C-alpha cells in the first residue's frame, strides 16, 4: 500500500521514504502529521504530542492526568470498557501472559492499580476476564509473619560501590547476582541509581538478563530496587546517546522493563524515594522474606504500606 504525501501528492512505498522526502519540503515529521492528520487529546482538546508515527496515531491523551480526568468525566461503564480495551490491545500486541504490575502500568498510558480498583472494582478480576494470569496472591504484607533478623548479617557484594548502611551488621562477599542478601533467604536485592538503571536497561540489557537467569538457576528471587522515584527515569538529564546524536527515548527503557517482567516471574522492579529509603526498605524486605514473592512491592510502596 503506497503512502501519499499530503503536500505534493507523490507516492512512497514506506514511512522511511516518505519521512526522508519531507526534508525536501523543509518540514519536520511533527509538523507534517499534526497539520495534515490532526489528533486531539480527548480530555483537553490539545493536539497530541508527536514522538513517532505509531505513538501519535495510537495515543488518546498527552498525560496520565488527562487520561484520569477523562475517565472521571464519562459514565463508569464506558470508562471500564476503555480500560479493558487498552489491556486487551496490550495483551495482543505485547503477547502478555501476566496481569501488568504496578511498575508496568507506570510505563503505559494507564492509571495505577489503586485507581482502577477504586473506580472499577477488582483489578485482578478485570485481568482474569481478558485471560491474564495473576502473579501476586496478596495485596499486603502480614506483619505477624515478619522474621526477627536484627542479629543477622546482611551480605554486600564485593563489587558494590558506595554500599548502603544498615542497622544490621554487614559482611562483604562476592555474588554472581544481586548486591545484598541475608543468610537463609532466597531474596536478593539489586540496588541501582537512576543512572545505573538507564545503563542497565539500554546498553547493559543483555548482561543484566544473564544475571537474572543466574538468579533463576540458583532459585533466587531478585528485587531490582532503584533509589529514585519512577518519574526520575524520564527526567534523567544524562540520557545515553546513539552515535552521539540520537537520544534513546525513555519508552525504550519502559519496553525493556515490561519485557523482563513478563519473561521472568522471579523478579520485581521497585522504585523508592531516595538512598536512605533504600536501606529502610531492604531491611523490611529481608524481614518479610518469602512474603515478598506474593505481593506487588511497588503497589505497596505507593500506598505507603512498605
Layout of strands and helices, then pairs:
Elements: E1 3-4, E2 11-12, H1 15-21, H2 29-36, H3 53-58, H4 64-73, H5 76-94, H6 102-106, H7 113-120, H8 123-129, E3 154-157, E4 170-173, E5 180-182, E6 187-192, H9 194-200, H10 205-217, E7 221-226, H11 232-235, E8 241-242, E9 246-247, H12 250-263, E10 267-271, H13 275-288, H14 297-302
Parallel strand pairs: 3-4, 6-7, 7-10
Antiparallel strand pairs: 1-2, 3-5, 5-6, 8-9
Walk me through what this model shows.
The mean pLDDT is 91. This protein has 306 residues and is an alpha/beta fold. The strands form three sheets. Strands 4-3-5-6-7-10 form a six-stranded mixed sheet, sandwiched between helices. Strands 1-2 form a two-stranded antiparallel ribbon. It has three domains: 3-58, no CATH class; 74-129; 148-302, 3-Layer(aba) Sandwich (Rossmann fold). It has 14 helices and ten strands. It is globular and about 75 Å long. Strand 1 and strand 2 (11-12) form a beta hairpin.
Give the tags.
alpha/beta, Rossmann fold, 306 residues, 14 helices, 3 domains, two-stranded antiparallel ribbon, single chain
